[in-house]
Design brief:
Radius of gyration: 24 Å
Structural class: alpha/beta
Strand content: 15-25%
Number of helices: 13
Helix content: 25-40%
Shape: globular
Number of strands: 20
């Protein structure tokens, strides 16, 4: 079996699967149960020394094709448990599981002395690192914390500097996706002394409106507020931001990938795009801690199948393939091919192409069957839409064709005409 041991900026764990700072890491009881199940690390639900009062109700799920939590919205705040209770439980967890990573998520008002005070108190509990929560988009941001800090690069740098002044363990900065370009805040975190960055925190959202009561979902006594969106539906956004930072030379620290990770395949994609480890939340809230068994087994088998001895051999291997649009090969072309033997004549591809793409799929009369659908390769632009809507695996494939043109990018074309 491959070596799954992970090292994020000096924080070691037996595997790269951590629990994200969220309801599953709200107590020592939960974290111990997670570690017993096999999780490599946990980021404790965000701590502060200010009293926190949460609301009821707090969560809402996006139901999609039978999956009740394809996306999830929450309006829950950081921990409402006393700081001393959390610190006592952190000590207990580290005594019982010394080989697991226990990272304390922290959020404080942007004042140097307040950061110094809470960092020293939490550090004494024996944590392996800190994760600064500059990403929470609701409740705390209205109080000048969370994403209110994370959306301003200068504040990210300044607050990180304050923590780095007294921290004796690695400092991870958790970034908000509610910003135009996450690279700017990632660079600011590095400038402030961050040992690593983690991304993404949740996305600003309103899950829905009840059409009977007209109440926002979720609602608190008939009223609602914007919340944080997470779950499988946010994975493409998170993966893009991780990859963007991984290829940025000014973001020169390890990345902890977060956002919609529910399977070993998801984790492998984040690792390939530059994450050194991954953090999971919504999938655990949906299926429980035991999903770690499938995550570990799946990743182990994948590494074995690729002939890789360590999970570290996977990190960043696909980053060089993620380029700017202007660097894509304009001469490359694929066309759709429909396997007549597999086709069930549902006509989804024909309708999609006719109404929403390039009108290149045509019915050809057949004596024994309904009309066969055939692709006009001259008109096909290789958009993939027919492949996406087809319900039969392998029925529609995208096949490269020789255009007779040498590779050329838009950047090269512009330079040639300059």
């Amino acid at each position: 079996m491959a070596d799954l041991s992970s090292n994020l900026a000096g924080i070691r764990s037996p595997n790269p699967f951590w629990l994200a700072s969220a309801p599953p890491t709200n107590s020592g009881y939960q974290v111990m149960r997670a570690f017993e199940a096999g999780w490599g690390g946990a980021v404790w639900k965000t701590l502060t020394d200010n009293p926190i009062v949460n609301v009821s109700s707090r969560f809402a799920g996006l139901r999609l094709r039978g999956q009740p939590m394809a996306g999830m919205n929450n309006i829950e705040l950081i921990t409402d448990r006393p700081l001393e209770d959390n610190l006592r439980e952190i000590r207990d967890v580290k005594r019982r599981f010394p080989d697991r990573a226990v990272v304390a998520s922290l959020m404080m008002e942007p004042k140097r002395e307040r950061w110094h005070e809470v960092v020293k108190r939490v550090q004494d509990a024996g944590v392996d690192g800190f994760e600064l929560n500059f990403g929470c988009p609701h409740g705390m941001s209205e109080r000048g914390m969370g994403s209110a800090v994370g959306q301003v690069p200068d504040l990210v740098r300044q607050n990180t500097e304050w923590v780095a002044e007294v921290a004796e363990v690695p400092v991870i900065v958790k970034l908000t996706p509610n910003i135009t370009d996450i690279r700017h805040t990632a660079r600011a975190a590095v400038q402030g002394g961050a040992s690593a960055v983690s991304m993404i925190n949740t996305i600003n959202s309103l899950m829905g409106v009840d059409l009977d009561t007209w109440n926002p979902i979720p609602h608190v006594d008939g009223q609602g507020a914007h919340g944080g969106y997470c779950g499988p539906a946010v994975k493409p956004i998170a993966l893009h931001m991780v990859a963007d930072c991984a290829r940025d030379p000014q973001v020169s620290v390890p990345i902890s990938g977060i956002g919609g990770i529910a399977t070993w395949q998801d984790a492998a994609e984040f690792l390939l795009m530059g994450a050194s480890n991954v953090q999971v939340c919504t999938a655990v809230m949906y299926q429980g801690f035991r999903i770690i068994e499938d995550l570990i087994d799946g990743l182990n088998n994948y590494l074995d199948s690729r002939g890789l001895a360590r999970v570290e051999d996977l990190i960043g291997k696909a980053v060089h393939k993620y380029v700017e649009w202007n660097d894509l090969n304009l001469s490359y072309k694929v066309v759709a091919h429909i396997d007549a033997d597999l086709c069930i004549h549902c006509n989804r591809c024909y309708i999609a192409c006719e109404d929403a793409a390039h009108q290149c799929i045509h019915p050809v009369p057949s004596q024994d069957h309904p009309p066969n659908l055939v692709v006009d390769e001259q008109e096909c632009v290789g958009c993939n839409l027919c492949h996406m809507v087809c319900p039969v695996d392998g029925c529609i494939t995208m096949i490269p064709v020789d255009t007779g043109r040498p590779p050329e990018t838009w950047r090269q074309r512009q330079a040639a005409h300059a």
